[in-house]
Every structure is written in structure tokens, then in C-alpha cells.
Design a protein that fits this description.
Helices cover 41% and strands 19% of the residues. It contains six helices and eight strands; from the N terminus they run E-E-H-E-H-E-E-E-H-E-H-E-H-H. The strands form three sheets. It has a three-stranded parallel sheet with strand order 2-1-3, covered by helices on one side. Strands 4-7-8 form a three-stranded parallel sheet, with helices on both faces. Helix 1 packs across helix 2. It is globular.
């Protein structure tokens, strides 16, 4: 798949939802001691077979979520150069954990960047129970507070998400410009 900059993008899923992608790992079905290695092997296979400029790895959960420990495997197994975090501002509590308040994006970013050798390059808004005005306000507030780009990948143009990645890795745009 090619993005608007002409950059070749490899894409695969981790977790249970691996439909629609050539490469995937159902981490929930793998014994924990093998998760990192299985993910790493799949990434290497995808890279060797496809030679993409970017590999996008989709997963679920968060490091601080008690029910999704596979997030740790995703970060360690992928050795990601960048992470786009998703946050649901209107949620008061973790889903299925009514006594656990939702963490702030700042605390999740700190945890991710402390746990792995990566950086959070952007934030997407999960707009459940939010109006368009609420989403716009949240985007502005989080950009100001966190100093990273923020978008809603479903309510805003998908180009914003691509721009987040290209802004974090400018060689992708430069590579495209020199190839043109």
C-alpha cells in the first residue's frame, strides 16, 4: 500500500483481529514466553518479503491496563521507532473496571517511553460519547498539553494520521521527494 507521499507501507495486526492483513500474530493464543519472539519473527518476515518504508503494527490495550498484558509484548517485540497512542477523553473508568479511573495520556506516554526505547509521536482521540466540538476542543487541549500532534483518525481526514508519522520521520517525505 502506498500513502499520499508515495511511501510504501507494510501493515499487519497483532492480537485477535488479524483479518485483512497479510501478516499477523494472535498474541493472546501464544504462551507469554514466546510472544516477543513470534512478533519479531513476523515483523522480520514482513520486512524481508515486502521491503516497506514503514511497518504499521496495530494492537490493543495499554501498558497500565490490567487485562491487556500483550501491550508489553508488542512494544518489546516490535522495537517500535514510534507509537501513536489512542485515548478516550469521555471515559471516566477503564472498560470493565469501574473502580479504575482512566489514566491521563501524559501518564500513559511516560509509562510507554520509560518501558521501551521508543517515543510517542502522536495521539488519536477515541470520540465515543463526544460531540464534534468536544473532539475539536480535546485535540487542541492535548496538543497544547502534550506537545505532540493529535487527531481523531475516524472523524478527521486519515491524512492527519499519515502527517503525524511523516512529521516524526521526515526522511520518509525526503525519500519520496528525491524519488520523484
Amino acid at each position: 500500500m502506498r500513502c499520499k507521499y508515495g511511501t510504501e507501507v507494510g501493515h499487519f495486526w497483532v492480537q485477535i483481529n488479524i483479518q485483512g492483513a497479510r501478516y499477523g500474530v494472535a498474541l493472546d493464543a501464544i504462551p507469554s514466553q514466546f510472544c516477543v519472539g513470534e512478533l519479531e519473527a513476523t515483523i522480520v518476515e514482513a520486512f524481508e518479503n515486502e521491503q516497506p518504508d514503514v511497518i504499521i503494527i496495530e494492537g490493543q490495550g495499554a501498558l497500565s491496563h490490567p487485562a491487556f498484558s500483550s501491550s508489553a509484548f508488542i512494544l518489546r517485540g516490535s522495537c517500535a521507532n514510534g507509537v501513536v497512542l489512542q485515548h478516550a477523553p469521555a471515559r471516566q473508568h477503564r472498560c470493565d473496571f469501574k473502580k479504575m479511573p482512566m489514566p491521563s495520556p501524559a501518564s500513559e506516554i511516560h509509562l510507554i517511553e520509560t518501558f521501551s526505547d521508543t517515543r510517542v509521536i502522536g495521539l488519536t482521540i477515541n470520540h465515543e460519547n463526544m460531540s464534534d466540538a468536544d473532539v475539536t476542543d480535546a485535540i487542541s487541549q492535548y496538543e497544547q498539553d502534550l506537545h505532540i500532534p493529535v487527531t481523531d483518525a475516524l472523524k478527521r481526514s486519515p491524512d492527519h494520521l499519515v502527517e503525524i508519522v511523516v512529521a516524526a520521520f521526515p526522511y520518509l517525505k525526503a525519500k519520496t521527494l528525491t524519488a520523484a
